[in-house]
């Protein structure tokens, strides 16, 4: 149905604005296009006073002018329908336009003008429509105020902005997580690649070591257990012979020392005898005894010293022999230890290489951990800086938006004050004009007739004054054309008003007839 109405409005009527089914409710929410449709069918004479603005006062003005025409066509229109259309309720504008389309098609078939349709209406229906129109103008509270609509718009805008910022923050968090996951994947790939290279290098080293291993041939068959035992026995015999030779040498040395001592003792005895004889001849007995004692003491001391020297010599020889044996044993041990195979040497080299690689891996791990820590700190600081910048920018935007809203609010308040002042000014000017008209009318009548004004005439003038109708005649009503101008319509309304008052007075005072 919306497409049919859009085709009728765009192609048949050719409105000033193209209407689409998606924006149907928004296009007719101000009432301007409805007035244009009625103006196309010559039913809305005051279309020049319609406004395309979307503020509440302009909408109220448009719909208050549309109400009599819609009631004249028989279209159902009241406060609830107007509120639904202004608030862009789905289906409200479509329903009203469909009813208007049907009513206009009926009017087109009957070929009646607006005055004819109005004259054909009963007087009671006309009064009821006027009462509804007045009630529609008075109850403005149903239609939302423009400032409330602006506040709703601002609230929706900030809510949308809040959702956008929330989505942006969520997206940034997701991007950070993705970046962190990507970094972890790269690090894992790097570590796996490094492990693969180290494993490959170790395999190459092991292959080289395996290639460099010399296969030691198996011992010959003659090297049996008996041969080994024979060699051990020969070795023991050789050692025993060496020990026996050493003992013989030691005994020979001792014998030489004893012979030297005996010869020395014999010579000492001979010299002692010779000395004693000499002393007996030359000295007395006491001196001789003293000399003998002294000589004996010297001999005993010399013997003791020789014994000490001999023992010291023996001890030195024994110590030297033990040192020689110890050196021999150490030499044999070193020789046995140094007789290790090439495989053991290669294993030692490989062990040193592994230790070096372990040290390198440990240092690399420490360096990588430091890099990770620095990167985490840097990412955290960057995230804090970004959040601070976003918060600062959001605060600046919010302050700017608040300033714009304040300016907009001040402008709206100024416009409302101007509109209120203009409305009050027009009302006061109209009342003042009517008072002046009444005063001049009374003065003219008194000046022309020089008599008092009749009660009936004064009552009619007061009734016109109270109802806001002009007292002076606006146009002649003798010859009425097909389309009445505004002045003749006013005169017709004045005449109807005076007739109604006469009728009311007649009903109230029937005995005055």
From TrEMBL:
GO cellular component: cytoplasm; manchette; sperm midpiece
Gene3D superfamilies to which the protein is assigned, alphabetical: Calponin-like domain
Coiled coil start-end: none
Swiss-Prot/TrEMBL GO biological process terms: sperm axoneme assembly
InterPro entries: CH_2, CH_dom, CH_dom_sf, SPEF2_D5, Sperm_flagellar-bone_growth
Short name of one Pfam family: SPEF2_D5
Annotated Calponin-homology (CH) domain residues: 1-105
Name recorded for this polypeptide: Calponin-homology (CH) domain-containing protein
């Amino acid at each position: 149905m919306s497409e049919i109405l859009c085709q009728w409005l765009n192609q048949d009527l050719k409105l000033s604005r193209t209407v689409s089914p998606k924006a149907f409710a928004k296009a007719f929410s101000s009432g301007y296009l409805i007035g244009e449709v009625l103006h196309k069918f010559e039913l809305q004479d005051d279309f020049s006073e319609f406004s395309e603005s979307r503020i509440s006062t302009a909408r109220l003005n448009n719909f208050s002018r549309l109400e009599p025409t819609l009631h004249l066509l028989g279209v159902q229109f009241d406060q609830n329908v107007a509120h639904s259309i202004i608030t862009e309720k789905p289906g409200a504008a479509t329903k009203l336009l469909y009813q208007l389309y049907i009513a206009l098609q009926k009017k087109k078939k009957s070929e009646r003008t607006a005055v004819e349709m109005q004259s054909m209406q009963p007087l009671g229906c006309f009064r009821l429509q006027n009462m509804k129109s007045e009630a529609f103008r008075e109850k403005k509270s149903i239609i939302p105020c423009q400032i409330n609509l602006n506040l709703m718009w601002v609230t929706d805008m900030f809510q949308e902005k809040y959702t956008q910022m929330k989505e942006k923050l969520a997206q940034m968090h997701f991007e950070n997580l993705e970046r962190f996951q990507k970094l972890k994947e790269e690090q894992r790939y790097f570590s796996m690649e490094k492990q693969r290279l180290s494993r490959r290098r170790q395999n190459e080293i092991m292959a080289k070591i395996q290639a460099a291993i010399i296969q030691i041939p198996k011992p010959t068959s003659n090297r049996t257990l008996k041969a080994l035992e024979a060699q051990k026995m020969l070795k023991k015999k050789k050692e025993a012979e060496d020990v026996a030779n050493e003992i013989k040498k030691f005994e020979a040395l001792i014998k030489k020392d004893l012979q030297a001592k005996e010869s020395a003792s014999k010579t000492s005895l001979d010299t002692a005898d010779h000395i004693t004889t000499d002393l007996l001849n030359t000295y007395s007995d006491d001196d001789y005894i003293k000399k003998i004692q002294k000589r004996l003491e010297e001999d005993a001391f010399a013997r003791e010293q020789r014994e000490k020297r001999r023992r010291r010599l023996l001890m030195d020889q024994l110590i030297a022999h033990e040192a020689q044996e110890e050196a021999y044993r150490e030499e044999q041990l070193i020789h046995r230890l140094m007789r290790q195979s090439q495989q053991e040497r290669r294993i030692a080299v490989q062990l040193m290489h592994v230790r070096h690689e372990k040290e390198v891996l440990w240092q690399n791990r420490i360096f990588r951990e430091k890099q990770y820590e620095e990167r985490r700190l840097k990412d955290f600081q960057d995230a804090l800086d970004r959040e601070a910048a976003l918060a600062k920018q959001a605060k600046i935007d919010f302050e700017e938006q608040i300033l714009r809203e304040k300016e907009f609010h001040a402008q709206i308040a100024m416009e409302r004050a101007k509109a209120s002042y203009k409305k009050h000014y027009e009302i006061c000017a109209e009342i003042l004009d009517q008072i002046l008209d009444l005063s001049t009318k009374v003065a003219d009548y008194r000046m022309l007739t020089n008599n008092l004004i009749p009660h009936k005439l004064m009552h009619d003038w007061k009734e016109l004054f109270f109802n806001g109708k002009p007292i002076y005649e606006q146009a002649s009503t003798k010859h009425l054309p097909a389309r009445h101008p505004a002045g003749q319509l006013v005169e017709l309304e004045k005449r109807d008003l005076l007739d109604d008052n006469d009728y009311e007075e007649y009903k109230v005072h029937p005995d005055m007839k």
